[in-house]
Amino acid sequence: MTNDPLSYALRNVPRYTSYPTAPHFHGGVTADTYADWLGALKPDDTLSLYLHVPYCRELCHYCGCHTKATRQEAPLVSYAAALGQEIELVGKHVQKAGPVRHIHWGGGTPSLLPRQSLIDLTVSMRVHFDLSPDLEHAIELDPRLVSAQLADTLATIGINRASLGVQDFDLNVQKAIGRVQPYEVVEKATTHLRSAGLDALNFDLMYGLPGQSSATILDTVEKTLSLAPGRIALFGYAHVPWMRKHQRLIDEKALPSAAERLELADLARNALLDAGYVAIGLDHFARADDSMAIALSDGSLKRNFQGYTTDRGEQLIGLGVSSIGKLSNGYIQNMPDVGNWRRSIMSGEFPVCKGLALSADDRLRGQIIEDLMTNYTCDLAQVCKTHGLSIQDLSEAFTALEDLAEDGLVDLELGANDNARVKVTAAGRPYVRLAAAAFDAYLADSMATGKARHSAAV
Ligand SMILES: C[S@@+](CC[C@H](N)C(=O)[O-])C[C@H]1O[C@@H](n2cnc3c(N)ncnc32)[C@H](O)[C@@H]1O
Ligand code: SF4
């Protein structure tokens, strides 16, 4: 290898849950732009709704999500009321669009909303949108808060997929990240959910946390396997204290080194593969019979702001503070502040703060990056043809891929008649973000101007 694997792992690149990435959104996209874009939707445009609930009981030290702690019910009830108004406001503008195929409640901890608010909001979506009979209805859950009553509420509103934040089962690691939840808590949460008929489960695990060792991560994987979730996400801890101030509560001296992170990721990954899980993209695993493994094999796997998804809705509508939507015309992001977001909705205006209208070049590169992040390969000639652009437009990406190709991390096949394909090799898979970054036309600029600081590539 020309370059040390560690030097690749240390490169800071985006996670590409969108392209262009969110730091490039700007205020030129407004509420009026959004109204025009929603108005342009057609009856065959299927929809996906994302509802963001920015509240948790308490904050975990590592958390990078847009959320805040609350112990009171009043802010939750009032937030849900405004969310209901936003559903109505958007619903009125999408009457010509097709059915909703996917709903995702994310956060924060959306299940903190009172039972009646969860029911009212679901009814509101049913009234203002056309919900498909085969709707996938998913929610993110904190296992410490999953009771038999909550499981019953989730079943009542038709939730059919749940993701639990597990992170790590070791008590010392849990103390170091400010989130103590013994194995029995997670076991009980899964039992409640399964008893209510909710068996499509995902566990979020993390590597790179303070105090983790080979032994603790293997034990975490073993305990996870004993509860047999259909999907497992294995996220590398993104330590970004300059953006998330409370991450300063993490003792940096106890964080694994870059080499240790690579080893922890490898150990967990191999243990999951040995147990028969199929690796999906950068950080997901699924049992072979899970719809995500099936989506990988039939080429329908997608990547969006929630990470890897089998979401079949083509147009993503974000609801709630800071949520991001993606329509054919571009990205739209809501205001991050609850007060401003609510005031805007109450005055009948979309609470949009920024976004980005997609150019032909953005669409081309976005497609290449999504193909690489999901399938590890891209038929560049075909994608260029689809987007009416030339392979010559990508010449600087080929230069950027040279060192990865020399080190056997990607294969670049450049044939006659502009035939071109890029493939991430088995050895290159952990570094797929670097291959994607070669096609990112905004990256050099954002690095130079300091517009975006990213976490390490592995
Ligand atoms: C909204 S939370 C999950 C639901 C619920 N609030 C909980 O924590 O149980 C989403 C997931 O993002 C992941 N996450 C949060 N902060 C992260 C960070 N700094 N780096 C990597 N993953 C992170 C965690 O695995 C977490 O479970
Ligand atoms: S990890 Fe989940 S529970 Fe913890 S602060 Fe983040 S969103 Fe809240």
Class based on secondary structure composition and strand pairing: alpha/beta
Given as residue ranges, the uncertain stretches (5+ residues, pLDDT < 50) are none
CATH T-level fold name of the domain at 41-324: pyruvate-formate lyase- activating enzyme
Q: What ligand species are in this complex?
A: S-adenosylmethionine, iron/sulfur cluster
Mean pLDDT: 92
Biggest β-sheet description: 9 strands, mixed
CATH top level class name of the domain at 41-324: Alpha Beta
Name of the CATH architecture of the domain at 41-324: Alpha-Beta Horseshoe
Describe the structure.
The chain is of the alpha/beta class. The protein has a domain at 41-324: tm_1862 like domain (pyruvate-formate lyase- activating enzyme, Alpha-Beta Horseshoe). The protein has helices at residues 5-9, 31-39, 74-93, 115-128, 148-156, 171-176, 183-195, 214-227, 258-274, 291-298, 338-346, 360-375, 380-386, 395-406, 432-437, 443-449, and strands at 47-53, 55-56, 68-69, 100-107, 131-141, 161-167, 201-207, 231-236, 278-280, 284-286, 302-304, 307-309, 315-319, 324-327, 330-334, 352-357, 377-379, 410-414, 420-424. The protein has a nine-stranded mixed β-sheet, with helices on both faces. Helix 8 runs parallel beside helix 9 (258-274). The chain binds S-adenosylmethionine and iron/sulfur cluster (SF4).
